[in-house]
Amino acid sequence: MTGNPLISLTAFRWPGTCRRDQAMRRSAGFTMIELMMVVAVIGILAVVAVVGYTKVIRKAHSSEIPAMFAELKAREEAYKAEKGKYLPACLAAPATPADSDCPEGGLGVYWPDPLIGGNQQMPVGIMPPRFQSLHVNVGRGGLYCQYEVVAGVANDLGSMGATGHVLFDPTFGGAAPIRNWYYLLAQCDWDGNPAVNATWWQRDDLTELGRDNELQ
């Protein structure tokens, strides 16, 4: 017999050994494509998490609106019981009340002002005269949204704007309400873009909340 039998046995490989070695080398680490897929999945999950978190935060902050509307409605009813009519309440209105001096929307009507936006809380500071007359209790250090009360007397459309007409027209057929009336408005800026803001509204005798652009 020629050659060293130990060397021959050591050099011999059983069938399939090479294939196993190659598979082990391939499975020893991630390929570039696999790494890119992992990064893409992590990115998608991160975006979903951020969007979900943002929605939760906005929903929590917007819970302020029905609470403030309930406060304003209680104060308006108390004022009417004493004075016989509702009080328009906005930023620019003077202390001396008038029947229709808080027009719907526009500049200088919403309070607090300015609207900071981006889910930031605005300090209340000193309340405007009309909100003081209503004895509004904010119950917190600041507000995330701005508010206004548009009010008028019976048979007078006064400062009623487009939202008011939508709210009252189904009941009064496009004519002025035959009773003293008011409705509440709120404006919020959740995304920090003042071009389009979230808006909320409610009629004095109804509990339904109207809303538009809720996440903006």
Count of helix runs: 6
What does the main sheet amount to?
Answer: 4 strands, antiparallel
Helix content: 25-40%
Number of domains: 2
Q: Which structural category fits the helices and strands?
A: alpha+beta
Shape: elongated
Regarding quaternary structure, what we see is single chain
Helix-strand string:
HHHHEHEEHEEE
Total strands: the figure is 6
Instruction: Report the portion of residues in β strands.
Output: 5-15%
**pLDDT under 50 segments (min length 5)?**
5-12
Secondary structure elements and pairings:
Elements: H1 5-11, H2 17-27, H3 32-62, H4 64-83, E1 122-123, H5 129-133, E2 142-143, E3 145-152, H6 162-172, E4 181-188, E5 198-203, E6 210-212
Antiparallel strand pairs: 1-2, 3-4, 4-5, 5-6
What features would you describe in this structure?
With 216 residues, the protein is of the alpha+beta class. The chain has two domains: 1-61; 63-212, no CATH class. Helices cover 39% and strands 13% of the residues. It is built from six helices and six strands. The protein has helices spanning 5-11, 17-27, 32-62, 64-83, 129-133, 162-172, and strands at 122-123, 142-143, 145-152, 181-188, 198-203, 210-212. The strands form two sheets. It has a four-stranded antiparallel beta sheet, with helices on both faces. A hairpin with a 6-residue loop joins strand 5 (198-203) and strand 6. The longest helix has 31 residues, at 32-62. The chain starts with a helix and ends with a strand. Residues 5-12 have low confidence and may be disordered.
